[in-house]
Amino acid sequence: VFNGSAGGAAVRIRHGWDRLRLAAGGGAAEGPASGGFGVEVEGYGFEAGANYSVDFFSGADSAASNLSARSSTLLAGPAPPWGAAFGAPANASLRFAGHDGEASLLTLGGLAHVDPASCASPACLVLFEDVFDSSRAGPNPIQASDGSTLVVPGFGFSASRGYVVEVSAGGGGTKMFAASTAVASVTELRVSPLDWDLPFAASAELRVRTDGGALLRDLRPTPLGIAQNATGLSPSDLTARPGQPLNVTGYGFDP
């Protein structure tokens, strides 16, 4: 709020905001729960060059980010990593805590050019979608079957919904792990034990779906290596006699 005078009477000029959008394009604001995607806020009365503290909140959950005033009518900066602390999807509202330490709250304006696709009074909404990162999944390569646990990192996983981890190797088929997939935290899924009892595949594609079938975004798609492994020998009491049959059992062998 700025104080001035006109004809001896005090004038109050309020700065505020009225539109939120993705920096990369129009439409509703939707991005990965890992954050970092650019957002732009249109408004009026911003102090060019100042940093504005922005809170994204849903219920009691909130995450903060700083946007820079590119001009008196535009703020720009990254969305916060919502999924590092909270599950997604979350329809998060937006509010401002002022700039440069100022405590006053900037409110949503009622201008005529408010975009109803991305804003709804009294706040704009941002949808954070849960995502995973196959480049950090491990161990990589995994043994075809040794009872190990496959860890799938990501952001915004919610214990209130189910996830299905798929390991697909083209002609080798697809192995799905549903009941054995557990949400260890909002940033980690675990599949245990992992048993690849399908034909040989040197590498496979990792996918994650919700229990409703929706495919999650992979932040950095990376093949998952699958190593063949032996689980047993028979007979176990081998002799030195030449020509004695030896059977090796295991997983992932190439027929």
Question: In terms of topology, how is this protein built?
Answer:
Layout: E1 2-6, E2 9-13, E3 16-22, E4 29-32, E5 38-44, E6 51-58, E7 61-71, E8 74-78, E9 90-99, E10 119-120, E11 123-129, E12 131-132, E13 142-143, E14 150-155, E15 163-168, E16 174-177, E17 181-185, E18 188-191, E19 203-210, E20 217-218, E21 224-227, E22 229-234, E23 247-251
Parallel strand pairs: 4-11, 12-20, 13-21
Antiparallel strand pairs: 1-2, 3-5, 5-8, 6-7, 6-9, 7-8, 9-11, 10-11, 12-14, 14-18, 15-16, 15-19, 17-18, 19-21, 22-23
Organism: Hemiselmis tepida
Protein name: IPT/TIG domain-containing protein
Region (Disordered): 230-255
Round the Cα radius of gyration to an integer and report it: 27 Å
Instruction: Determine the structural class based on helices, strands and strand pairing.
Output: mainly beta
Q: In CATH terms, what is the fold-level topology of the largest domain?
A: Immunoglobulin-like
Strand/helix succession: EEEEEEEEEEEEEEEEEEEEEEE
Query: What is the annotated CATH architecture of the largest domain?
Result: Sandwich
Helix fraction?
under 10%
**Global morphology:** elongated
pLDDT averaged over residues: 74
* Beta-strand percent range: over 45%
Please provide the count of β strands.
23
* N-end to C-end Cα span: 76 Å
Largest sheet: 9 strands, mixed
CATH superfamily of the largest domain: Immunoglobulins
CATH class of the largest domain: Mainly Beta
Number of helices: 0
Unreliable stretches covering 5 or more consecutive residues: 1-5, 97-118
Instruction: Work out the count of structural domains.
Output: 2
